[in-house]
């Protein structure tokens, strides 16, 4: 099947470009001496996670317990839930799931740690814990070195938990457009993490893992601080990241059909229900300058002097690949003009 035979709107993945992005990131992480633990949220597809592992990733990070279940049921053996798991029912599921693989989770609260220990003891499993450190996200994480150390000591006393180290993800820096500003802010976060590591070592507590780093800050990392990188968007890229001038290339597109045209306007059949817009609107791949106006089922592009006609197929670059993927059930794999297969996005909607 040819790409333009697909019914629209639909996700199309350029396999050659995705594979190039995988190679580029593996080369970057090898150069800076950091293991890659790519984030699952960007593709939500276990087969792609397996390809990332085959290329050299040490494990996969995800945001939700249900995503971890999907990955582990597909055979992945090293998974980190880069988030807190709090409710009793979810903690019970987590504890039982930990018997199937090396399963990590982030913590920042004493009661949560003790509840994890009780559940793991009941299930007869071990849960690996990273303590999340607040580095500017204003989200989760302990705010002081002293509180971090206190929680680490509590975990060490729990026979069914393993203290592994630090979660320090500065996602708030990922999309800062000014290169020097982003670099400077990233270095300040690194200095804060280094202070924590030094403090822990002075108090007899080592961090075996220091995990974090986004696609947008990956180019600033050097040997000796982080042990793992949790970048995800490098795989597909999108409009928001393309604006930063990184070495990765757009590999994921929305194929849409032109429904109507005027001399200064092109209307396609993909809108808010098929394109994530939280980090910016989609762009026409062949006319990045065209200004979009979205409604639920349509996007209208302002494009004076265009040559499009109804029935033409066009590629759109999503503003944000992660939320766009979560709106689709499958993605079609392409090489050149040919569709070579389809991947089910099995973790679509698994936000629990």
User: What is the count of DSSP helices, taking H or I runs of 4+ residues?
Assistant: 9
Mean of pLDDT: 97
Task: Please identify the structural class as seen in this structure.
Answer: alpha/beta
How many extended strands? 17
* Uncertain segments: none
Indicate the overall shape. elongated
> What is the C-alpha radius of gyration, as a whole number of Å?
22 Å
Helix content class? 25-40%
How far apart the termini lie comes to 36 Å
Strand-residue proportion: 15-25%
Major beta sheet, specifics? 9 strands, mixed
Please characterize this protein's 3D structure.
This protein is an alpha/beta fold and 352 residues long. 30% of the residues lie in helices and 24% in strands. Strands 1, 10, 11, 12, 13, 14, 15, 16 and 17 form a nine-stranded mixed beta sheet that branches. An eight-stranded parallel beta sheet has the order 2-9-8-7-6-5-4-3. The two termini are 36 Å apart.
Main attributes of the structure:
352 residues; alpha/beta; 9-stranded mixed beta sheet; 8-stranded parallel beta sheet; 9 helices; 30% helix; 24% strand
Summary, kept brief:
Helix content is 30%, strand content 24%.
Helix-strand layout with pairing:
Elements: E1 10-14, H1 15-32, E2 35-36, H2 46-54, E3 60-62, H3 65-73, E4 78-81, H4 88-97, E5 102-107, H5 110-123, E6 127-132, H6 145-156, E7 161-168, H7 179-202, E8 209-212, E9 228-229, H8 239-242, E10 252-262, E11 265-268, E12 283-284, E13 291-294, E14 299-302, E15 313-317, H9 321-325, E16 330-335, E17 338-344
Parallel strand pairs: 1-16, 2-9, 3-4, 4-5, 5-6, 6-7, 7-8, 8-9
Antiparallel strand pairs: 1-10, 10-11, 10-15, 11-14, 12-15, 13-14, 16-17
């Amino acid at each position: 099947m040819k790409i333009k035979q697909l019914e629209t709107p639909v996700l199309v993945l350029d396999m050659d470009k995705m594979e190039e992005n995988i190679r580029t990131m593996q080369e970057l992480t090898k150069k800076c001496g950091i293991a890659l633990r790519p984030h699952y949220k960007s593709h939500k597809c276990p087969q792609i996670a397996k390809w990332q592992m085959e290329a050299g990733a040490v494990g996969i990070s995800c945001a939700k317990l249900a995503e971890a279940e999907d990955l582990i049921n597909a055979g992945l053996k090293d998974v980190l839930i880069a988030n807190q798991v709090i409710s009793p029912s979810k903690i019970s599921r987590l504890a039982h799931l930990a018997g199937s693989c090396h399963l990590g989770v982030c913590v920042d609260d004493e009661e949560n740690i003790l509840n994890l220990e009780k559940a793991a003891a009941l299930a007869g499993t071990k849960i690996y814990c990273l303590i999340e450190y607040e580095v500017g996200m204003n989200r989760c994480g302990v705010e002081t070195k002293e509180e971090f150390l206190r929680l680490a000591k509590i975990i060490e006393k729990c026979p069914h938990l393993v203290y592994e180290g630090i979660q320090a993800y500065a996602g708030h820096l990922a999309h800062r457009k000014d290169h020097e500003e982003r670099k400077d802010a990233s270095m300040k976060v690194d200095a804060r993490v280094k202070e924590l590591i030094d403090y822990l070592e002075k108090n007899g507590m080592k961090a075996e893992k220091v995990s974090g780093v986004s696609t947008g800050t990956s180019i600033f990392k050097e040997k000796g601080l982080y042990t793992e990188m949790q970048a995800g968007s490098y795989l597909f890229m999108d409009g928001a990241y393309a604006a930063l001038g990184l070495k990765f290339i757009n590999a994921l597109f929305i194929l849409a059909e032109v429904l109507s045209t005027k001399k200064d306007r092109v209307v396609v059949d993909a809108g808010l229900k098929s394109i994530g817009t939280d980090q910016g609107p989609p762009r026409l791949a062949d006319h990045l300058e065209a200004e979009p106006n979205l409604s639920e089922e349509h996007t209208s592009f302002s494009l004076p002097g265009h040559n499009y006609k109804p029935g033409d197929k066009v590629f759109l670059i999503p503003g944000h690949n992660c939320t766009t993927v979560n709106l689709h059930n499958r993605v079609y794999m392409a090489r050149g003009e040919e569709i070579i297969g389809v991947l089910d996005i099995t973790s679509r909607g698994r936000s629990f």
